[in-house]
């Protein structure tokens, strides 16, 4: 019973954070947006919305990608050594997810810059 209330409260806080920050910045005409194709507009890299999304969504996904990529790398290591692409496999499966999760500043996405 208590866990159910906790998760409902956590979900409500999560939704309120995104809804309130989006409305505040959407009403502020001095806030700068980056335009994307098809007329959609997204918040700048490093903004509050992007930092919250990074901390709550992207970092946990990056952590899972790092763990899964490392496991796949270990399993595929004999085959990649025989194929001569061990360094490329290590870069794509371990190094890139690790850098995405732990080395980049909070709220900075290379695709938004």
Could you characterize the architecture of this molecule?
Strands 1-2 form a two-stranded antiparallel ribbon. A hairpin with a 5-residue loop joins strand 1 and strand 2 (41-43). The model is unreliable at 20-37 (pLDDT under 50). With 113 residues, it is mainly alpha-helical. It has helices at 2-27, 48-83, 86-103; strands at residues 33-35, 41-43. Helices cover 71% and strands 5% of the residues. The chain starts with a helix and ends in a 10-residue tail after the last helix. It has a domain at 59-104. The chain has 3 helices and 2 strands; from the N terminus they run αββαα.
Give the helices and strands, then pairings.
Layout: H1 2-27, E1 33-35, E2 41-43, H2 48-83, H3 86-103
Notable features of this structure?
113 residues; 3 helices; 2 strands; two-stranded antiparallel ribbon; mainly alpha; elongated
């Amino acid at each position: 019973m208590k866990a159910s209330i906790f998760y409902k409260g956590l979900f409500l806080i999560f939704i309120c954070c995104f809804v309130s920050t989006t409305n505040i910045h959407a009403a502020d005409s001095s806030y700068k947006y980056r335009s994307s194709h098809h007329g959609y507009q997204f918040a700048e890299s490093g903004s509050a919305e992007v930092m919250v999304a990074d901390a709550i969504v992207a970092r946990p996904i990056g952590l899972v990608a790092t763990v899964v990529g490392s496991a796949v790398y270990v399993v595929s290591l004999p085959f990649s050594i025989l194929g001569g692409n061990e360094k490329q496999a290590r870069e794509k499966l371990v190094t890139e997810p690790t850098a995405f999760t732990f080395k980049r500043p909070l709220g900075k996405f290379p695709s938004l810059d």
